[in-house]
Amino acid sequence: MAGVLKKSNQFFRNVFSELKKVKWPTRKELVSYTITVLVTVVILAIFFALVDLGVSKILDLITD
């Protein structure tokens, strides 16, 4: 049991040590990345909705 606690303690020390090395984005970068992702998601959602609508209309014409 003591070995597990010792290994767990060392693991979390290593995790925190690695997190200190991470270059975190600035607020400006974070906002920019967030806007980029949201715009991309909206564009792809519209694209796939239009493709779905088109395929649906084609199938309606074929099956009627």
From TrEMBL:
Domain of life according to the entry: Bacteria
Entry keywords, A to Z: Cell membrane, Membrane, Protein transport, Translocation, Transmembrane, Transmembrane helix, Transport
Record organism: Pullulanibacillus camelliae
Name the UniProt record assigns to this protein: Protein translocase subunit SecE
Lineage: Bacteria, Bacillati, Bacillota, Bacilli, Bacillales
Compartment list: Cell membrane; Membrane
Transmembrane segments: 30-51
Alphabetical list of PROSITE patterns matching this protein: SECE_SEC61G
Pfam families: SecE
Subunit composition and interactions: Component of the Sec protein translocase complex. Heterotrimer consisting of SecY, SecE and SecG subunits. The heterotrimers can form oligomers, although 1 heterotrimer is thought to be able to translocate proteins. Interacts with the ribosome. Interacts with SecDF, and other proteins may be involved. Interacts with SecA.
